[in-house]
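User: My collaborator sent over this chain with a note saying "see what the structure looks like." That's all I know about it. Can you take a look?
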Amino acid sequence: QVQLVESGGDVVQPGGSLRLSCEASGFAFRFFDVHWHRQAPGKQRELVASIASGGATNYADSVKGRFTISRDNSKSTVYLQMNSLKLEDTAVYYCRLTASWGQGTQVTVSS
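Assistant: Without extra context I'll predict from the sequence alone. Here is the result:
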């Protein structure tokens, strides 16, 4: 059974940085693509970034140049480095692997 646990969410000022982590267990992590999504209050959940099993990455236009997704297969963990955070980045951030979701971690950008 796949289990995903996110961490690293916090309250940060505009322009600040955070690194989110998604630790996976229960399967051969290294063979799978992993995705970060986010959901802001009153909005639909959206795809933010993806990393393929081979390391190729993709980003939503809204975060390109500010966010970096990476993975450490030895730790079964995917990271989302978020820089130059904006008010509109406030959301619950979720990681996903196939149809399995983590519980989410709250990121709040506020002055």
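A starting point for your reply to your collaborator: The mean pLDDT is 96.
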